[in-house]
Amino acid sequence: MSQLALLAAKGIDKRFGGVQALSDVDFTINHGEIYGLIGPNGAGKTSLFNVLTGIYVPDGGEFIFDGEPLQRLKPNDVAARGIARTFQNIRLFANLSALENVMIGRHVRTRAGVWGAISRNAGTRAEEAAIHRRAYELLEYVGVEKRAHSLAKHLAYGDQRRLEIARALATEPKLLALDEPAAGMNATETSSLKSLLAEIRRDGTTILLIEHDMKLVMSVCDRVLVLDYGKKIAEGTASAVQNDPKVIAAYLGGEVTLNLKGTS
Amino acid sequence: MRSLFDTHRNPKLAWVGIVLVAATLLVLPFVLASAGTFWVRITNQAILYCFLALGLNIVVGFAGLLDLGYIAFYAVGAYVYALLASPHFNLHLPFWIILPMGAAVACLFGVLLGAPTLKLRGDYLAIVTLGFGEIIRIFLNNLSQPVNITNGPQGLYLIDPFRIGSFNFAHRETILGLDFTGPIKYYYFFLAALIAVIVLNMRLQDSRIGRAWEAIREDETAARAMGINTRNIKLLAFAMGASFGGIAGGMFAATQQFISPESFILVESVMVLAMVVLGGMGNIWGVVLGAVLLSFVPEILRFTVEPVQKALFGRMLLEPEVIRMLLFGLALVLMMLFRPAGILPSALRKRELEVART
What we know:
The complex is a heterodimer. Chain A is of the alpha/beta class. Chain A has eleven helices and ten strands. In chain A, the strands form two sheets. Chain A has a six-stranded mixed beta sheet with strand order 6-7-8-3-9-10, sandwiched between helices. In chain A, strands 2-1-4-5 form a four-stranded antiparallel beta sheet, covered by helices on one side. Chain A starts with a strand and ends with a helix. In chain A, 45% of the residues are buried. In chain B, a hairpin with a 2-residue loop joins strand 6 and strand 7. Chain B is globular, with a radius of gyration of 21 Å. At the A-B interface, helix 2, helix 3, helix 4 and helix 5 of A face helix 6, helix 7, helix 8, helix 9 and helix 13 of B.
């Protein structure tokens, strides 16, 4: 089991002032799976992402990634260790071309420094050519190569989401963390996103997926973690979670409705 | 006009264009000298401003870090040169040793400024850098006691000009039948250095480091999530920008042969920033154009304002200095209204992108 786990979270806690955003969250993500993270708005999904990727420091608990703890790493070190992410509200480099966006993703896996840039020696030229080639391949992979030279901000919304995935893949992640990639997509775009996710997994990258589109989650995720008010309320296969009464209550608001009646 | 320099689509025409520009630049100082050596000096100063604007462009244009105290690095470079090549300490090191030293010391100051301001952005960073610029100037003004290091407000004088063996840049001599005055000699040296700096900047911009700077400018959080060590990359931008300022400072000290804290006031920082903004932030040719324009236009006004007013009204109504600032302000306001991205903005880049798409 432990060889299978790519990421293990143990007792993750995060507080913002008086708000307990995450309390004692445990889970493990296995190599090669698509792991869903769902929950109602404000359940702590994005907070969990931010704690995982080093944007926030957790108040308690630890992540073990690929056999080593991720404690107190800066976001750039987390990326170097092999976790790449996208953002809920797309954060591309808006005034750079699509190609340049992906080329920047190669930064962490390449070496050239100031001297290389100035001297343009053989090594640097070869590296630049490789960065260029790889970035273009990734644009093809996600299907936005036709807009390679357009500024990122001029891309259609769905293409921006795909570009963000290409940029994240450029860092050669072992774990790709996607924050609501289908948000704002139409049915066609969502179904092609679904095949892209399947392809990424087939090519050997494990995926952690936050998503509100239940149809997408239920059809692509091997296992799902459900958060509500910062607590884990269920974990398991998509179908098992779907039928869990606690999950139904959290989503349909059964208990919440009763509580509201009780308090108001 | 652009096709004249497009080496990809029309190589022959491009070479003609390059040869024409090169020939113009080579003949320029002799043409200017016929109007007065003064104009050659102005040209040299314009080249130094190009250096400064290009250095500041790395910090402001590429990395997006607003720096209002940039002239401090110019001051550091100038004082390093002056202290090591003047009678003040009776040191007379050759310029090719001091210029790199000036760049190194300025680079160190760049890191000193950069390190504590890493977490600051926008307005806050601008205020801190403004303070830094003033601190340097005030230090230069007051470091004459108890040990006299900078000679205070009197400044340093009799600074050595550039010298290679017996070839002295400050002396007038006739070479191949041409009358080479001091400023003309400096002109060729500065021009060569400027070309080197432009090439260097272009290579930096189109590199892994340049892309990382632009990533930080566009979205720092996303840049960090992509594995860019924003701390190091920002410090690098400050250090590189400062080094260019330091070299320009050394050149300034050598040509003027006299420097004082007066030359490094806040208005100078604002002026260099205006060159970057007016020309087009992040665009190397735009920045050069901005620096050349803002160096020459005030000097041209100085000579035209008086005769024009005398011809129109029969007497002087406004001092050239007043008109200069008035026009300068007006130009900036109009720029911000009609071409907010600068004279040569990324529009040039946009066109390249469109060309590539079709």
